[in-house]
Amino acid sequence: RKEVEQDPGPFNVPEGATVAFNCTYSNSASQSFFWYRQDCRKEPKLLMSVYSSGNEDGRFTAQLNRASQYISLLIRDSKLSDSATYLCVVDSWGKLQFGAGTQVVVTP
Amino acid sequence: SAVISQKPSRDICQRGTSLTIQCQVDSQVTMMFWYRQQPGQSLTLIATANQGSEATYESGFVIDKFPISRPNLTFSTLTVSNMSPEDSSIYLCSAETGTGLYEQYFGPGTRLTVT
Questions:
Q1: B106 and chain A: CB distance < 8 Å anywhere?
Q2: Cis before residue B8, ω within 30 degrees of 0?
Q3: Measured distance CA(B80)–CA(B66) in Å, rounded
């Protein structure tokens, strides 16, 4: 079983709509959780860190459910520029484990 | 966040040769890392580059194939040795800048093609 699993998508989202997707992790001892955004042929960029039950930053909301070992990312009022692959990243004994990413495509 | 640069940004190399990738951070950092990302896949940690000591390699990666240097707190190099087409990948360095626990920031990557 992979340490971090994500739905690869793609999630096709009309501009202005809301999209949400989850990520599950296997190490119950993990303490730090992140969402990174990766554009095609670019490096991952940190979008949000999730250290407690959740975090909100503008149109982006991340939630952590430790009991079920998943984190979610919700994007409100989607913009065309939100089209990207979103990587779920979880610390596992001090090392970051990366999910394979969820592709989001925002359409006009 | 730190600004991280990598050189070269891309290269095409012949099998059997070696390539050294440089990673420069604009501030002193304790932890630097080297990752590989193959097409359509996520990131795989190659090794942690420790200043003043040998790098710590992950399972499946060995020092003879991927020697790493970390001469100071702002710089590291990764060498891909005796390359084969299977080494074609994007190589990324990252650094923990201390702004958040385990938060890492990435360089732009080096796109390597081995022919």
A1: yes
A2: yes
A3: 5
Q: How far is CA A83 from CA A39, A79, A80, A104, B75, in A?
A: 8, 8, 6, 5, 33
- Secondary structure (H, E, C), A22-88: EEEECCCCCCCEEEEEECCCCCCEEEEEECCCEEEECCEEEEEECCCCEEEEEECCCCHHHCEEEEE
Test A101 with B42 for CB contact under 8 angstroms. yes
Tell me the sheet residues that pair with B37.
B43, B90
Token pair for residue B23?
């990673």
Residues of chain A contacting residue B111, judged by C-beta atoms under 8 Å apart = 41
| Residue-wise pLDDT tens digits, B32-66 | 999 999 988 889 999 999 888 889 999 999 999 99
Round to whole Å and give the CA distance between B21 and B18. 10
Tokens describing residue B108? 């732009």
Cα separation of the two ends of chain A: 37
pLDDT tens-place string over residues A28-64: 999 899 999 999 989 999 999 997 888 899 999 999 9
Tell me: cis bond preceding A10? Omega within 30 of 0 counts: yes
* Rounded average pLDDT over A11-35: 95
- From B5, which residue of chain A is nearest by alpha-carbon distance? A43
